Amino acid sequence: MINKKEITQFQLIFLLIHSQVGVGVITLPFDVFMKAKGDGWISVLLTGALIQIMIFLFGALMVRFPSSNLYGIVQSLFGKWIGKVIVLLYSIYFITIGGLILTKFAYILKAWMMPLTPKWLILAIMTFTAVYIVKENLQLMARFFVLVSVVLIGFIGLAAYALKDANLTFILPIGTNGILPIIQGMERGLYAFQGFEILLVIYPFVQANKKGVLKAATIANIFITLFYLFLVLTSLLFFSAGEFKLVPEPVLYLIKAFSFKIVERPDLLFTSMWIVLAATALMNAIYASSLGLSMVMNSNQLKKYVIIAAGICFLLAMTFREAYNIGIISRIYNKFVVFPFTLGLPILFLLISIIFNKKERENDE
């Protein structure tokens, strides 16, 4: 394995949390509301349950290939050349994630905090920061993620203040819109949960057995589900149905509605904390893509591919400018890219390994 620096089970929890909490946390309540209305919180719960099922399926794949990550598994299943093509596709997938993270990051930051700052400068600073951390090793990344997780407490605290004005009638009666809108809300909400698939890339680097890895992944998923559930419920209880349609970033509008004696614009404080979460999500995407690219090229120079992956993410983010274009690209991406790479292909890999009795020990013989 390239640049193998092992992390602990405790660090894995935070690494998985930060792989999922990113730019999507700002718009998640709006996204699920547009489909599920007041039942959007149910969509979040069901999405968390779906992710947990996938984690267990990942565990079954990990048991069959205990020391190979996703990129090694596909080469064991499909051979060297087809396997490398799949690894390259996954690398492009993670680069695309990074590009979308940067795109939405720049859009929200210019809209809420830095309207006169050039977009290229915002993207360059974020990209440089990500490269600076990722170019070292996974262990350093994990330590950094544990350190900055304190911002999650600030997120919860600021959002919880809005509960004093909560209106329970906004989510009643429960289930009035039927099952289909709730399922459609899951489709919209899956983007915010995206990132858990990095477990298949990093699990060989964890100082724990497979049960320990699954336990850490489960704890991270439970936290993410409850965290998103809290933000979605708080937003649903604060905004009426008519107001929700006018606030595409409801979490920020929620915080902006308040002012304190010490902090007049808490939404700016909130945005500052969100920047950290966007950065850590970007770092995970760059690391996963650069690891894949280096394996495709049979290279041990991971730092070079970190710079290449980050540079492509930067160029992708510079390509999309208008909010309308960002929305269209995001919807196409969610529908035709997220589902195959996060759900479809891992299940296919597991089925192939079972049907053809492919295991790591057979490849060693």
How would you describe what is shown here?
This protein is globular. It has helices at residues 9-20, 24-36, 40-64, 70-78, 80-112, 119-134, 138-148, 150-160, 179-193, 199-202, 210-238, 241-244, 250-256, 266-296, 302-319, 323-355, 360-364. It has 17 helices and no strands. α1 (9-20) packs across α14 (266-296). The protein has a single domain (9-359), classed as Up-down Bundle (Amino acid/polyamine transporter I). The chain starts with 8 loop residues before the first helix and ends with a helix. It has 365 residues and is mostly helical. The model has no long low-confidence stretch (mean pLDDT 87). The longest helix has 33 residues, at 80-112.
Keywords:
about 375 residues; mainly alpha; Amino acid/polyamine transporter I; 17 helices
Q: Would you identify the CATH H-level superfamily? A: Amino acid/polyamine transporter I
The ordered string of helix (H) and strand (E) elements is HHHHHHHHHHHHHHHHH
Total strands: 0
| Mean of residue pLDDT values | 87
**Major beta-sheet overview:** none
Strand content: under 5%
Task: State the shape.
Answer: globular
Task: Tell me the CATH architecture.
Answer: Up-down Bundle
